[in-house]
Write a structure and sequence with these properties.
Layout lengths: L2 E5 L3 H12 L3 E5 L7 H5 L3 E2 L3 H7 L2 E4 L4 H8 L5 H4 L5 E4 L5 H13 L3 E4 L2 E2 L2 H5 L4 E5 L2 H12 L4 E6 L3 H30 L3 H8 L7 H6 L14 H18 L4 H15 L10 H8 L9
Parallel strand pairs: 1-2, 1-4, 2-3, 4-5, 5-6, 8-9
Antiparallel strand pairs: 7-8
Helix pairs in contact: 9-10, 9-12, 9-13, 9-14, 12-13, 13-14
Protein name: 3-hydroxyisobutyrate dehydrogenase-like beta-hydroxyacid dehydrogenase
InterPro entries: 3-OH-isobutyrate_DH-rel_CS, 6-PGluconate_DH-like_C_sf, 6PGD_dom2, 6PGDH_NADP-bd, HIBADH-like_NADP-bd, HIBADH-related, HIBADH-related_NP60_sf, NAD(P)-bd_dom_sf
Organism: Tunturiibacter empetritectus
Length: 297
């Protein structure tokens, strides 16, 4: 069993630590808000007071934070993980950030004699709980082989896609489809509803039809009732859409459906729905269609 560290104990991070503890690994964790770690501490996770302490304690450090500025925040300074890494250690960053930033941090990690992989995941909380999460990995092949057994304890599908930053490019290419699919699904539901079909019936038919991707199957019902806690809120989804649009501009790839869907996320923020699950783009479209869904009240 491995001596692991985990920085960032949000909804997904906590579930990953749960799985790693269940597999018998030793885990030292850090989260800015300690209260979110209490459940894991009770299960045997050791708590560190800083990212640096995690890096000092573990042989392999995993990190998962919300965006690029958060990643820089846990990496840099006297209490950042860079200050705690030593030769031979491995950092596996699971955050979804820009590929260029990830490569920049990887260079700093290697200058210390350690190594870094970017390893974003595809799936949601329910995917992770069901054991169906997939992991994309960028970085040196030999480093990937060392940590592959650990990543397989998080999800059954682990794929090395190339050098540093390329897993993030793959994740961004994947994630843009989540919101685009959700908007197309919302169009179908509302077209059926305004034709006279009950929304519940339309959702049932569409989530059992040929258009029902795994994401639509578990998120489609959110157009009937938002979850108590957002699985992936509007701000997080828009962050990924903006990463995609930026990458598209860099690579001269037009992303028309991404651009249009991103405007619906902006509209959701304007309606004070930023903290709701991004499935709320249905409610934005419903509002434009003359339907008040009552969301946010």
């Amino acid at each position: 069993m491995a001596n692991l560290g985990f920085i960032g104990l949000g909804v997904m991070g906590s579930e990953m630590v749960d799985r790693l503890l269940a597999k018998g690994h030793s885990v030292t964790g850090y989260n800015r808000t300690r209260s979110k770690a209490e459940r894991l501490i009770a299960k045997g996770m050791k708590f560190a007071e800083s990212p640096r302490e995690v890096a000092e304690a573990a042989d392999v450090v995993l990190s998962m934070v919300t965006n690029g500025s958060a990643l820089k925040g846990i990496a840099e300074g006297p209490n950042g993980f860079l200050a705690g890494l030593r030769a031979g250690k491995i950092l596996v960053d699971i955050s979804t950030v820009g590929p260029d930033l990830s490569r920049e941090i990887a260079e700093k990690v290697r200058a210390l004699g350690a190594d870094m992989l970017d390893a974003p995941v595809s799936g949601s909380v329910i995917t992770l709980q069901q054991g169906n999460l997939s992991v994309m990995v960028g970085g040196r092949a030999e480093t990937f082989e060392k940590v592959k057994p650990i990543l397989l304890d998080i999800g059954p599908k682990v794929t090395h896609v190339g050098g540093n930053g390329l897993a993030l490019s793959m994740k961004i290419a994947s994630n843009l489809s989540l919101a685009v699919q959700m908007l197309a699904f919302s169009e179908g539901v509302l077209l059926a509803e305004k034709s006279g079909i009950k929304r519940e019936v339309a959702v049932d038919v569409l989530t059992h039809s040929a258009i029902a991707s795994p994401m639509i199957k578990y998120r489609g019902p959110f157009v009937l009732q938002q979850p108590e806690e957002a699985w992936f809120d509007v701000n997080m989804m828009q962050k990924d859409m903006l990463l995609a649009l930026d990458l598209g501009r860099q690579l001269n790839v037009p992303l028309p459906t991404t651009a249009v869907t991103n405007e619906f996320l902006t509209a959701a923020r304007a309606l004070n729905w930023a903290k709701l699950d991004f499935a709320v783009i249905f409610d934005v479209l419903a509002k434009l269609s003359g339907i008040d869904t009552g969301v946010g009240r």
